[in-house]
Amino acid sequence: MRGRRYTADTIGLLLVVAAIITFMALLDFTEGTLVSVWVRFIRTWMGWGAFAVVFFLGLAGVLLILANNEKSVAFPLKRIIVLEGLMFSLMAFFSALGGQSLQRASQGLDGGFIGWGLAEIVDRFLPAPISTILWGGITVVLAVSGLGLTGLVGNLLDRLLEDEPLESEGQAAESVASAPMDQKGTPARKARKSPEPKGHAELKRGDGLPPLDLVLPDKTVKADETNIHDTARRIEKALADFGIPARVVGFRQGPTVTQFAVEPGFVEKTNPDGEMVRQKVRVAQIANLHRDLALALSAERLRIEAPVPGQAFVGVEVPNADPSIVRLRNLLESRPFLKMRSPLALALGRDVSGQPVVGDLSRMPHLLIAGTTGSGKSVCIAAITVCLVMNNSPETLKLAMLDPKMVELVRFNGLPHLYNKVETEPERMLGVLKWALAEMDRRYRLLEAAKTRDIDSYNERAARRGENALPRVVILIDELADLMMSAPDQTEHALVRLAQLARATGIHLIVATQRPSTDVVTGLIKANFPARIAFNVASSIDSRVILDANGAESLLGNGDMLFLDPEAGTPLRAQGVMVSDNEIEKVIEYWQQHMNGEVEPAPWEEMIESAAQSEGQDDLVERAIRIVKEERRASASMLQRRLRVGYPRAARLIDELEELGVVGPSQGGGREREVLVSKDDGEEQRNIDYNEDEIEEDPE
Ligand SMILES: Nc1ncnc2c1ncn2[C@@H]1O[C@H](COP(=O)(O)OP(=O)(O)OP(=O)(O)O)[C@@H](O)[C@H]1O
């Protein structure tokens, strides 16, 4: 590895030296047997184009050295093609200008033999001076396109090369093999690594962002074809033993599971008229056999996707004997990730074929994560955080982290993106949510004053006018249950209101819980968090609470997840990204070195202080919410009476309820306010779930 690195550096250096020597020899500053032969050769064939050779040699050398030292400069193929074209058209143009003389070409003048040949071809159809003007025109267009990379040709090539696969990278991704199988279940062609893109990373990453080598790359894992072949045979046999003819027609291997494509066969039945008819096996028959298949394959757990969306087969997902770890670096460089072109692009993991699973937080626009203890939630939140801070500076992205578990997220203390430090006490966390609501309102007022629709247009306008842009804010909560236990109504209403309205103002929520019960993930919360990640859960009931579908109970833990993208509709199985403490430290260190790191007091400090001053207030708010829900009307005087508080306090409470979205705005004239939440919010959901509890856990 090290040897290869030095070789590349040496070749790069030799190319640069060759460029310098050639340049000097072209100007007659140096000579030598070899050098003279070389210079005569390029002068004769390329004429003055020989200077372009110097340029290309030098450029190739510099790019090679930079790329080898992780500082690769984006140099797209289209630019190379345009520059090459420019070189040839220049040579033809020189030749045409020089009167298209073969004698001059042989003396190493004009465009040399090549330039003369090109000019001669065109001259046959378009005699001078038209051909000269034509070559001049082509040269100008290519020069503008190649050097400025705008132009017609650049765009045209853009289109032509749109589907060109990016060069595959040195450090290949996790094993991402897939192959069809022949009749006997043998892989019909060698499993191959799918090309993992690279090369456009630097182009898309903004200036001043941390280098990608701060985070780890994937390790290459080869598909074990013998094992796969064997498992395919056992799946077919197990199904046949239950009277289900089916064929394994392919497989896709991901980091933790291999998905076998099972094509249902036909069974022969006698119809009432005594005739034999062929009937296709129903997918449900295969899906119902997941336990028997797990037994036959001696697999701990097995998930059946029946059918695989958009495919004509059933997917049987068998755990890999040797699961591999998904790392962040290759995902950050991958084409699907870069293609999102979003500052809030999230690299979540790799699917069952090893392809990157990515999502755009600004479109989700909030994310709910659930899973039992030890299933991978905290690792997921840490990976998301690292992914976000690898792509955003502390000026453009702010994070608020709430971690009642006090162990997982505190590792991020000191990160300049973080407001103050990770909050670990429930009372302070409530303060953060209240601040977020106030910040959202403040931002709406700013957007309104600037007559802009959302944070993007606001920031564009601010940039044009040289004003301060608004940073995006991501609030990460590592355990919702604690907050919901201490102040259920306030937490729910704050989360719901933020989830409903905060998107346009650039505030996003990422909320995790290990208790996907309906008193934590209430119906209202669920309805407002359409993007969800389910890690392994205890039962199919929990799985339905999170995903509205079974499946998460069959996951393997350790970052094995189902990602429900609101735009896709069906949950996608993936292995989550893992980031190590070391990677987190490096990224924090990078940002600390690049920012003048004064930790400002948290913006919610004031709110927390004022809350502390009026002790017991939270309790009062909770009671007020309950009362307006019951009474279906709300006014300060009613709260004054029911809560036995003074009028000013009751009026403040009504304002707080309005802020929380529980009651509508003042209608004037002392009229009662509209109650915006139904009495059954939360309750309704609880009832549904009691009913769901009655559903048999396994429909089998
Ligand atoms: N993406 C992953 N890849 C590999 N291993 C993982 C991954 N995610 C989690 N693990 C393993 O699972 C362990 C537990 O993960 P994590 O701490 O994220 O669980 P959790 O769901 O947050 O649990 P708790 O709710 O108890 O905090 C990790 O220490 C790690 O060993």
The CATH architecture of the largest domain comes to 3-Layer(aba) Sandwich
Helix content: 40-55%
Tell me the β content: 5-15%
Poorly predicted ranges: 158-203, 683-700
Taking the alpha carbons of the first and last residues, their distance comes to: 54 Å
CATH homologous superfamily annotation of the largest domain: P-loop containing nucleotide triphosphate hydrolases
So what's the overall shape?
A: globular
Structurally, the number of domains stands at: 4
- On the 0-100 scale, what is the average pLDDT? 80
Q: Summarize the biggest pleated sheet.
A: 9 strands, mixed
What name does CATH use for the topology of the largest domain?
Rossmann fold
Compute the gyration radius: what is it?
Answer: 33 Å
**Ions, cofactors and other bound molecules:** adenosine-5'-triphosphate
**Which strand order do you get reading across the main beta sheet?**
9-8-16-15-14-10-13-12-11
Could you describe the 3D structure shown?
Helix content is 47%, strand content 12%. The protein has 27 helices and 16 strands. The strands form three sheets. A nine-stranded mixed sheet has the order 9-8-16-15-14-10-13-12-11. A hairpin with a 5-residue loop joins strand 4 (266-270) and strand 5 (276-280). The longest helix has 25 residues, at 2-26. Residues 325, 371, 373-379, 405, 408, 514, 558-559, 576-578 line the site of adenosine-5'-triphosphate. It comes from Ornatilinea apprima. Residues 690-700 have a biased composition (Acidic residues). Pfam families: FtsK_alpha, FtsK_gamma, FtsK_SpoIIIE.
